[in-house]
Amino acid sequence: TWTLFGRASSGGTWWALDPGYWDPVMPSNRIQSPVIYDPLRDRVVIAGGEGQSGAILYNDTRAFTWGAPKRDVRIDVRPGEDPNLVNTASNGRLPVAIYSEAHFDATAVDLATLRLAGAPIRTIGRDRPSATTQDLNGDGRLDLIADFVPSQLVLAPGDSVVELIGNAAGNTTIRGYDRVLVHRKLDRDRV
Asked: Are 150 and 191 in contact (CB under 8 A)?
C-alpha cells in the first residue's frame, strides 16, 4: 500500500528534508506534484505536476530511494517440491531458485553475498559457490539455483518462512521469501 503524503512545492517541506539530494533532481519550477511513499521499496514517488504558470508541464513519474536500492525477488526453496521440507540436522544440499524477471537478471547476483536464513551459499572444491543456471519456469530467462547447507540455517521447529538476501548489479539489495516446513532428523545423510 502506498501512502499519499501531500504535494511538493518549491518551498515545501519535502525539499527541506534533504535539499542537497532533492534540488539537483527536482526542477525548481515544478510545483503541485503528488508525493507518495512506497513502503515496499522504501522510496518516495513524485508524479506529474504543474509549472509555476499553472500549466501541467510534467507528465512523468520519478522515484527516489534512500540508501541502497532494494528489490523483492521470487524464490522457491526446493524448486518443484511442495511442501518445502528443511531438515536442520542435515549437511546435505538445499537448492533455492531465484527467478529472473523482465528487469532483473538472477544470474548476475553476487553469489558471495547470498544468505538464506543467515547461512552463506554452500561451497564446493576450493571455496567455489555451488550454483547453476536453468530456465525453470519456461519464460526464456535463465534462473539461478543456489545451494545451501540446511544445518547452517538459523531456523527452529515451527518457523514457516525463510528469507534470502544478497546483492545484485548496481549495489541493489535483493530479498525473497518462501514457505518451509522445518524439522530436525538426525540422519545427517538425508536432507
From this structure: yes
